[in-house]
Amino acid sequence: MAKEIIFSEKAPAPIGPYSQAVLVNDTLYVSGQIALKEAETGDIKVEAKQVMENIGHILTAAGLTYTNIVKSSIFLKNMDDFGLVNEVYGSYFDSNPPARETVQVAKLPKDVNVEISVIAVK
């Protein structure tokens, strides 16, 4: 199994012992992305947009785009934010959006409001 670590200077560096993303054959596994500074604003849409931009930077570093995403996992601190996050998230997919689940969790790293991870295929 050939495993390549993908890193983008434009996305936040990992805050623990993990990689931003790992490419195995034609599949890219992107670790959960958060938006630290944006979480402080209290605006969930701003936070979600930054998370999606972080994902975009990592995809670009691997030579991929949002259209390559086949699966997303969204973790929300508050399910009441679902509609606002969904609006932002949906704006990154013109058609044929990926499979996805969205769950509410008790707490997220650095006390952010949203974390998103994705799997993309070349």
From TrEMBL:
Superkingdom per UniProt: Bacteria
A Pfam family of this chain: Ribonuc_L-PSP
GO cellular component terms given for this protein: cytosol
Signal peptide feature range: none
One MF term in the entry's GO annotations: deaminase activity
Protein family according to the UniProt entry: Belongs to the RutC family.
NCBIfam families, sorted: Rid family detoxifying hydrolase
Protein name (database record): RidA family protein
Annotated organism of origin: Salmonirosea aquatica
